[in-house]
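So, can you check these tokens?
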Amino acid sequence: MNFNQFVVRNTLRNKHLYMAYFLSTLMSVMVFFTFTVFAFHPDLTSGLNKNVQIGMLAAAIIIYGFAFFFVLYSMDVFLQSRKKEFGLLMIQGMSPKQLKKMVFIENLVIGFFATICGSVLGIGFSQVILWLSKQLMHVTYGFYFPTQALILTIVSFLFLFFLISFFIQFRLPRLTLQELLKAGELGKGTIKASKVKGFLALLLLAVGYAIALATPGQLVPMVMIPVIFIVVVGTRFFFNQLSVLLIEGFKKKQSLFWKKTNMVVFSDLAFRMKDNARSFFLVSIISTVAFAAIGTLYGFQSLILEQTNAVSYEFQVQGDPKEVKELETSLNQVLVKEGVDTRAASATIYQNENNQQFITQTEYNHMAELVGEKTLSTSTNSAVEIRSVNAMVQTKQKTDSIKISNKTLAVSTVEDTKVIPAYQETFVVPDTLDLSGMAQTKLTNWQPKSASREQLLAVGKAFEGQPQYIFAKTYSEQSILDMFKPILFVGVFIGIVFFISAGSFLYFRLYSDMDVDVEKFKMIYKMGLSKSELKKMIYQQVGILFFTPIIISVIHGAVALTAMYHIFNLGMQLTGWQVLGTFVVIQAVYYIIARTFYFKKVYRQIQV
């Protein structure tokens, strides 16, 4: 048996030793392959504009770059945990040159199998994504054999693993033979954290959040890049410095530190936070990207749909009285042709030089009766200001009085009406008021008595290519959904990809430290620790490591989505909380599964 055969057989026979690293690299391959499956999907790419296609290409490059650093970092951690093994091999006569060669071949073997297995699993995972998108988003994309994606993934990752295999040789632990052999017995020394950098973490995060939340909507895009930079640096200092200071401060409070099993849970937590700072930082940033991508796209679609749904009428024509008359005739002909029975109501909207709208009481009430809303009554000296639910925001203070044709009218207010759109100041005035000198717009609305969705879509489609504008509610909703489906699908998929990648980071870090946990808990277990106490400590420890980066990313995501909604002069919407809540639930399920398997593995080895 030659040296190369020894390395390959040693790698294959010690599968358990390499499993965590193999699974983490396999996950990176699977994620990239699944993304390229959709990037080359003929049904998806044909429905996207050039800007979205460029965005997908940029996302693919980002995912590949992320995979490179993730695999490199995972391999680095993997090598650092094998110091004792390297010491034993060197005692048996292995030279440093042979050790580097062994690591090179090992990484190629693991990379080869991870690439093949990841691509195969990616085919199945892509079908799961397609099925979920069909069930949840009603997006239907057919199956195709991803030849281009398969070739690109295999070539890209074989090159990546070859590159990492070459560079990782220079990351081998540079310790003496004695230090390598006693690596598992040596303590970690005294942990040090900078109070200045800890304070900077709080300051930078606070400044970043303050700028994002206080900036007026139209200026949000201008401050986006500086805020991202400030928050990213602050997040780095938080995990690397501030978290360590907080844990060390907690340990000094003896009433809490010595309570029950807290001492065991927090004894080496500061070291683990320090060791995991890079991975936690990446997890929080990646998860924030996922939250922001999905939340922005989903929120933007919801905002547009809300505006459309707020219109009470199925069909609406508004414009110059002469043009409206022609459109009314055309629309009525199509309604008859499609067999849609409707009721209609018309009104004249007047507008003065101050951009204020007026409608007479009688015409407003006809419109209100059509949609089943309350009618209004005005006196000779009064008017009613209506505020529409389909206006994004009403920031103006309520008007107490208004002057029309040299006559002052007292004004009351009605909120959230759906009778007519009111994107500007709109008033219901007495029929006796003279409005003839103002600009006039005719508004006609139709409400179907009974009609199927297919009939309503057919009526709207009949006017799709005409230069005149006829608003068709059902058709507009469907058009918005069709327009956003490909983009939202890509955004949701990228979010899922990043979130799964974040989870694989946490998984790898958890299992890479398992040997240390086993030794620690084995000693405590011999002293009389019960199984329930052991389970509680492991659950607490795993929970802290799992949820710390997720909590930070949720806060980042909430601030980012709030700033996004500020562009539309809105506060944080329900859709934003739904996105964040969904990811938290997914992470909670991930945590429950991980902690259960982790406890079983640790407990099994403790009893040996």
In short: Strands lie at 315-319, 341-351, 357-360, 382-388, 401-404, 407-417, 426-429, 439-450, 471-472. The mean pLDDT is 76.
